[in-house]
Amino acid sequence: MSKPIRFGIIGFGWRAEAYLRIAKQLPHAFKISGVAVRNPSKYVEAAKRWGVTLYESFYEMARHCDFLLVAVSKTSVPAVLEELVTIQVPLLVETPPAFDEESLRTMSSFAEKNGQIQIAEQYPLLPHQLARMSLIQSGKLGQVQHVQASVAHGYHGISLIRNWLSLTDISCEIVGRRFELPILEVPYRGRQVQDRIENEVQEIAMLSFHNGKSAVLDFTRSQYFSPLRQNRVLIRGSHGEIRDNEVTISLGTDAYDTYSIHRIQSGMEGSLGPLSLRELRAGQECLYRNPFSSAPFSDEELAMVEILTRMSAFVRENISFYPLTEALKDVRLSLAIEKAISTQESVSI
């Protein structure tokens, strides 16, 4: 059995604490070497609570790590990477790697100089997305030419679209619109709400790629928090399609089948196991099996575990999974969508 991968975290926000929770439940796989922050005195109590060592110096912490996880605010990422450029340690950087044209140019220069940077994009690694990707890769849908994603905003949604369509060339034409809609007050991050109407912003973009493939990105941030707004997925191929968790495929001449992707969950109805996902199945076929079902992880946490697992493979075997160069393509498309929506004009890449 291999030793746990050792990593240090730069930053001590809510995302960093999410990784601390994961590592605490999987000590055989991951070991936190420490947390580096600008002002350690502010985080003494948090460090005691988590049982981690605080560092003020990235360099000192890096001596004890197989890789570093950068989990700071998006505006701080370029400056932090500038400091880390001389450290010969692989880097896992939280999203987004860039947020405007200036930071995109800065991060593009980092990508040219450093091939050891991977990006922690979790959406394609969520269990249901891995299950859908398994169906795409099986060939049962035939040629996938059109997708619609109403799952996540901006670069997150784009990462799903590119994954489903297997796109490396992002040359395309984009049109977009923004709408304001009424909705009952949304419980953002658990805030108390009343029975009042507020406005939400819905953004819709259509992308026509030069290779003939196309996509629609449709999202409102209320989907992250309000039960009144559900996610939607459409993956359309020549021989079938996926609509959310419903699958329709061709079985041959004038023969078709429709079935559902369903969850096999433990810890329910008298089960003494942890409340966790075991499998995602379509009939007798297993599309996704949770390798960490002994721990009570949410789907989001399972995606984060998958990121850490893939980062471990990158460190040990140099198997890249989401390099900075690819992540910046998603950012570039996201910025182009913002421009198309704000100008109400077609934008070409």
What does this structure look like?
Helix 5 runs antiparallel to helix 9 (324-343) and helix 7 crosses helix 9. Strand 16 (276-282) and strand 17 (285-289) form a beta hairpin. By secondary structure, this protein is of the alpha/beta class. The strands form 3 sheets. Strands 14-13-12-11-7-10-9-8-18 form a 9-stranded mixed β-sheet. The protein has a 6-stranded parallel β-sheet with strand order 3-2-1-4-5-6. Strands 15-16-17 form a 3-stranded antiparallel β-sheet, covered by helices on one side. It has helices spanning 14-25, 44-50, 58-62, 77-84, 101-113, 127-138, 154-165, 299-317, 324-343, and strands spanning 5-10, 30-36, 54-55, 67-70, 91-94, 117-120, 144-150, 172-184, 197-209, 214-220, 232-237, 240-243, 246-252, 255-260, 262-266, 276-282, 285-289, 347-348. It is globular, with a radius of gyration of 21 Å. GO terms for molecular function: inositol 2-dehydrogenase (NAD+) activity; nucleotide binding.
Could you name the CATH topology of the largest domain?
A: Dihydrodipicolinate Reductase, domain 2
Return residue spans where pLDDT drops below 50 for at least 5 consecutive residues.
Answer: none
Mean pLDDT: 95
Number of alpha- plus pi-helical segments = 9
Please outline the major beta sheet: 9 strands, mixed
At the first level of CATH, what is the class of the largest domain? Answer: Alpha Beta
SSE order in H/E notation? EHEHEHEHEHEHEHEEEEEEEEEEHHE
Taking all Cα atoms into account, the compactness measure Rg is 21 Å
User: What is the CATH architecture annotation of the largest domain?
Assistant: 2-Layer Sandwich
Give the % helix: 25-40%
In total, the number of strands is: 18
Task: Order the strands across the largest sheet as they lie in space.
Answer: 14-13-12-11-7-10-9-8-18
